[in-house]
Amino acid sequence: MSANQNKVAIVTGASRGIGAAIAERLGKDGFTVVVNYAGNAAAAEEVVRRIEQAGGKAVSAQADVADAEAVRRMFDSAETAFGGIDVLVNNAGIMMRSPLAGADDANFDRQVAVNLKGTFNTLREAAKRLRDGGRVINFSTSVVGLKLETYGVYAATKAAVETMTAIMAKEMRGRDITVNAVAPGPTATDLFLNGKSDELIERMAKMNPLERLGTPEDIAAAVAFLAGPDGGWINGQTLRANGGVI
């Protein structure tokens, strides 16, 4: 029997891309998975179906992470359904690229609302409600290290997430709860590939010494390590899962 059996994991933004890959991997690893989504119910249900077809257990849960009350309700319903929550994966996020000179207020406010406030909303609930021995895995980006042009607001929200990660790890003292972040580099998701020329994709793939883009499964493997029994001694860290680009 898996060490993760009877453990419950909430994965935010899990209806597609990296989030869906994480949900499926944790389902394979024995977790009961709460597949959170903001708007695309059909896609979330498809992820649930794939997890169940592979022998796992999953349920979908609608909540915009930027809405504190919706997040609270999602935690409530997970506790009611499964008796408690062991793992939170804060994957939900948006990226709107623009030079700082051209970034409008709506661009700034939306990224802060989802990436920073959204992460805060789920961390606040997790800090109070996660079972002892639990795990929190937040999402940053390797752009925090690379500092690429046009990513200013996005990278700023993620740098804030890295800081909250390290501080929450200390605040969980005495409860055997680890808090870490994963910072992907360029990863082959629809979100990343859309609107980019083949030449640009090829160039970005060659940036790291392994000379390929990451896959959603690569990122899911890093999350699974941190969520599983082998990741228990890693705490307060940001793991850059990017093939060595920085």
Automatic annotation (TrEMBL):
<dbReference type="GO" id="GO:0016614">
    <property type="term" value="F:oxidoreductase activity, acting on CH-OH group of donors"/>
</dbReference>
<dbReference type="Pfam" id="PF13561">
    <property type="entry name" value="adh_short_C2"/>
</dbReference>
<dbReference type="InterPro" id="IPR002347">
    <property type="entry name" value="SDR_fam"/>
</dbReference>
<comment type="similarity">
    <text>Belongs to the short-chain dehydrogenases/reductases (SDR) family.</text>
</comment>
<protein>
    <submittedName>
        <fullName>3-oxoacyl-[acyl-carrier protein] reductase</fullName>
    </submittedName>
</protein>
<dbReference type="InterPro" id="IPR036291">
    <property type="entry name" value="NAD(P)-bd_dom_sf"/>
</dbReference>
<keyword id="KW-0560">Oxidoreductase</keyword>
